[in-house]
Amino acid sequence: MGMPDTEPHLSVVFPAYNEQERIGESLRKARTWLEEHQPEHEVLVVDDGSSDATAAVVLAEAASWPRLRLVQLGENRGKGAATRHGVLGATGTWILCSDADLSTPIHDVERLLAAAAASRAPVVIGSRSITGSNITQRQPLYRVAMGRAFNSATRLVTPGGHNDTQCGFKLYRRDVAQDLFSRLTVDGFAFDVEVLYLAHALGHQVAEVAVTWHNDERSSVNVLLDPARMFVDIFRIRRRHRGLTR
Ligand SMILES: Nc1nc2c(ncn2[C@@H]2O[C@H](COP(=O)(O)OP(=O)(O)O)[C@@H](O)[C@H]2O)c(=O)[nH]1
Ligand SMILES: [Mg+2]
Fold it and tell me: What is the count of structural domains for the chain?
């Protein structure tokens, strides 16, 4: 069995850096749901230069699941770079980008697909801070505060006024996703802001949908280094894409 002959309806991209403890369970949960509700799926795990057994765990799942593919980056490049590789390699009509810990359950993709169908927006972002979002396990307070500070800074440099740019659960129509991600310059965590900046600059509608968030406390974010890099990156975004119009 190889890949399906017809284009998958949904591609799911998981960027994964040292996820040996979490990716196996996430893949099994995703598989159970996808096989029932989105049979025309493909799943891409992008191993972001992990030094642990992430790749082996993924390959073990793929042995019985031909719709799962592993993409390996030779060295650690960052969540933005890993997500870009997944998106550019995806073949589905729609592409869901999700954190490897599935803090937002996979079935919430139905809400995003429904919003895309209703609004015709080619970009639909999960949000943890609008009415209807269901936070069953909050991020630690310092992370919530970090997220708010980051979103405020983001508003200064990018249009759109989104409440939650950093939620790790976003849906894109493939043609738009591949155009946006092929222009992406930020390799780190601030890549979401650049993608949204580009979407607005190119005139694409962006819809925001409330999602469930059950935070997995085993975060891989470095709270000292990552925010500093993210701030530097967001202030570069506008300069890099000056003059870009639809
Ligand atoms: N920390 C980190 N995460 C990465 C990197 N590349 C890809 N990722 C993935 O980005 C996602 C970050 O999610 P997570 O660690 O749960 O962060 P949090 O939920 O925001 O605390 C996971 O899927 C990681 O495996 C990287 O270079 N560093
Ligand atoms: Mg997480």
Answer: 1
Q: Residues enclosing ligand 1, CB less than 6 A?
A: 15-17, 19, 48, 76, 78-79, 82, 99-101, 103, 168, 216, 219-221
Structure tokens at 140: 């630690």
Q: Please give the structure tokens belonging to residue 108.
A: 């919430």
Residue 1 lies in a domain: no
Q: Residue 33 domain-assigned?
A: yes
Would 2 be classed as within a structural domain? no
Q: Is position 64 within any domain?
A: yes
Return the CATH number at 22.
Answer: 3.90.550.10
Residue 66 CA, chain-centre distance (Å), reads 22
Of 202, 187, 194, the residue nearest 85 (C-alpha): 187
- Compute, in angstroms, the gap from residue 203 CA to the centroid of ligand 1: 29
Contact (Cβ atoms closer than 8 angstroms) between residue 212 and residue 159? no
Query: What does the pLDDT look like over 58-93, one tens digit per residue?
Result: 999 999 999 999 999 999 999 999 999 999 999 999
- Give per-residue pLDDT as tens, 6-51: 889 999 999 999 999 999 999 999 999 999 999 999 999 999 999 9
Q: Note down the domain range covering 19.
A: 10-240
